[in-house]
Amino acid sequence: MITLTLDFETAYGKHPVTGENITLSKMTTEEYVRHPEFKILGVGMKWNDRPPAYWMEDWQRLKQLPWHDIALLCQNTMFDAFILSHHFDIHPKFLLDTKSMHKALYPQEPASLSYMAKKHRLGEKGHELVNTKDKWDLTPREHTRLAEYCAFNEDSDLNLTYKLFNILKVGFPLPELRLIDMTIRMFTDPVLELDRDVLEDHLYDVQLKKQKLLASVGADSEDGLKSLRSNLRFADLLRAHDVDPPMKVSPTTGKMTYAFAKSDEGMTALLDHPDIEVQALVEARLGVKSSIEETRTIRFDGIAMRGKLPVGLQVFGAANTLRWAGLEKQNLQNLPRGGPLRRAICAPDGYKLVVADLASIEARVLAWVAGQDDLLEEFRQGADVYCTMAGRVFQRSITKQNKLERQLGKALVLGCGYGMGWLRFGGFLASGPLGAPPILFNVEFADKLGVELYQWVENDDRVLVKEPVIAMEQCAKVTTKLKGDDLLAHAAVSKFLIDMYRRLNKNIKKYWKTGERMLTAMANGQEMEFGCLHTKQDRLYLPSGLSLHYKNLRMVADKDEEGKEHWVYDGLKGRGRDIQYIYGAKLVENIVQALSRVILSEQMLKIDPIYRVVLTVHDETISCVVNHKANDCLKLMIDTMRTPPDWCLDLPLDAEGDIADNYAEAK
């Protein structure tokens, strides 16, 4: 197979006729490449290690190249390969991408060509491209300068990309290269279609519901907006929608206060709340013009007008787990289950979507790495571990028909394996755990469990007095939905349940300390084995051959009076460097999610050659096949996803799946 390093240079900026700003800084890749005024200015090509070539015209010559035997190499292959696919119907045999490879090896660092060239001392990327802004037609001199920037200079984009690839490929796992190819092809060779009727109906409903809601709370007028900006009123509106108002510690008073500012994470997170009414309220409060649901629906409808859905996923996008992350402002990893946006994602006529999902994969992997054998045996016997856990809480048999009780068991199994304390767990339940309605405990329920709410203590005058088992100031941090003894009961029961979980899962609790040992080993540069994992300096290696990277891992002391020490590392947050905290239980969470990703990846790579994988969401694999192959595809997917990889043969896996015309109908 021939390696062809390729780089398209395209027109961008203000169009000379329409005046529209056509640029990737304002548009998604799909929107930019499919734009009717999209124009190629030139293309640089480098065959293996031979001198580069540069074409300035007659792009149809590209079709004459032996693409059936070409491994296409680019810095941002999603962009260049989408141009080949959309404008020339060219589909290379294999897709290589230095950006993705660098994100796999250095997840806490930027992946721009400029940064990578400096990091690996390859040279300095040029800046001639800025000279072509707003120009759809270049002079001969400008073409020459662009050709030098793209191909002919020693530090041209082509030469830097090729040199970088030869550094990154050393020891890079071949299966992970195949995963890069498969993920980028989801975007560059799209299969899924979008139903415009569903999208337009949903957009109408969202906008109408939003208008009615804003009118009902007076937010459709200036006076109403002023009233809405009252902290107390806005907090009451959120509570009316079963949402706990986000809180923070006031920097001036040191007391808890509402976190309603644009910069508060709890507030901005509500912009993506599953309830579009909550989105609308937060949008009105923050002065945002449209909700995420509204803009996402409009974006999907725009894609539908232009063609099929290019699935925007960044392989190795999550720095601490190497899981996929959303791209292209699609956020496919966070579409409400069963909602209209999922229903709009369809198989083409004559095809079906086949969806298979790994069952409770994180809970299984956690039990496996921690050696929690009794929980593993429950999984092995096919027991519903959520019902089992709920049965221990309610002291009676729980089945799937007992939905609320089972949901509490699920919250315990999935939510408490990473060191969650009672305070956070109580808030987790009150806010609606795992998409379920809020779970709130009261005095009556505490009595049934035998949880005491008050205790006798000796005061300073050596007189016995009755006090809450948890200070009410602490209880108030859990939820604002309850008051008085019911609030105390919710906090006390939350603590009781956390203690129960840890008592029943001693090996999982013990594994959090193993996480601390791993951090110490990484910080000290010790090479140590921890089951299927092993440590080196600042790195924890996975069975796949890739590693979790905790750059400059170190222990630092707090600046407060206590001066407690914490593990920190240099993480990448947005476009700047940021200090990230880590601890044993948090590392365990990263490990479990990373291993779950490795398992799913290995399974997808077995499925894809037979039935092409066109999308993955969390622990799901989605293929699109002709109607008469759907049942065979589902059987293969289920069988494959129930078979553990060679490095964890004693891990009991399970999967379930469905066949449907659209993504929402596949349960």
Architecture overview:
Helix 2 (77-88) crosses helix 7, helix 15 packs across helix 23 and helix 23 (506-523) packs across helix 24. With 667 residues, the chain is α+β, with helices and mostly antiparallel strands. Strand 21 (554-557) and strand 22 form a beta hairpin. It has a five-stranded mixed β-sheet with strand order 5-4-1-6-7, sandwiched between helices. The protein has a four-stranded antiparallel β-sheet with strand order 24-25-14-26. A four-stranded antiparallel β-sheet has the order 17-18-19-20, with helices on one face.
Give the key terms.
alpha+beta; 667 residues; 42% helix; 25 helices; globular; five-stranded mixed sheet; four-stranded antiparallel sheet
Brief description of this entry?
The chain has 667 residues and is of the alpha+beta class. 42% of the residues lie in helices and 17% in strands. 41% of the residues are buried.
